[in-house]
Design brief:
Elements: H1 3-30, H2 37-40, H3 51-64, H4 66-69, H5 93-96, H6 100-109, H7 122-134
Helix pairs in contact: 3-7, 6-7
């Protein structure tokens, strides 16, 4: 990843976090976050999640997700303390029971303090789904 792209992602994450803090109460008022039914059947096209793909996904997580989801994906990042809704614990049964399509949809669309990551290429978002799967307890 180029330095420019990394800086751009960090700036995007900072703006998204600020917006999320401003509008996060809306997500809290909305109740449980469920992906729409059509997301349930989306299939992950990443069939080979090798060491390189995992390293690439981890780099994306470190750049964009760690402030809220934490280094280990447990939802305990430094920004989590100020969010009105606790970030998802990717290692939890609740997250791991979701289909790949549901996780992909949530990553892509966001809600409240969780920014939409449609700015990431589709392949990278699917790699993030595979990365989240790799954190299963």
């Amino acid at each position: 990843m180029s330095l420019h792209r990394g800086v751009l992602r960090m700036a995007t994450a900072a703006v998204a976090l600020a917006a999320g803090l401003a509008f996060g109460a809306v997500a809290w008022a909305q109740g449980e976050w469920k992906a729409p039914p059509e997301a349930h059947s989306l299939k992950n096209p990443i069939t080979k999640f090798d060491a390189k793909a995992k390293a690439d996904a981890k780099n994306i997580v470190e750049t964009n997700c760690v402030p809220c989801h934490g280094v280990t994906g447990k939802g305990d990042g430094p920004a989590a303390a100020v969010l009105p809704t606790k970030p998802a614990d990717w290692t939890s049964e609740k997250v791991q029971k979701q289909t790949d399509g549901e996780i992909f949809w949530k990553l892509s669309n966001g809600r409240g303090a969780m920014p939409p990551w449609k700015s990431l290429p589709e392949k990278e978002r699917w790699e993030l789904v595979s990365y989240i799967r790799s954190l299963k307890k």
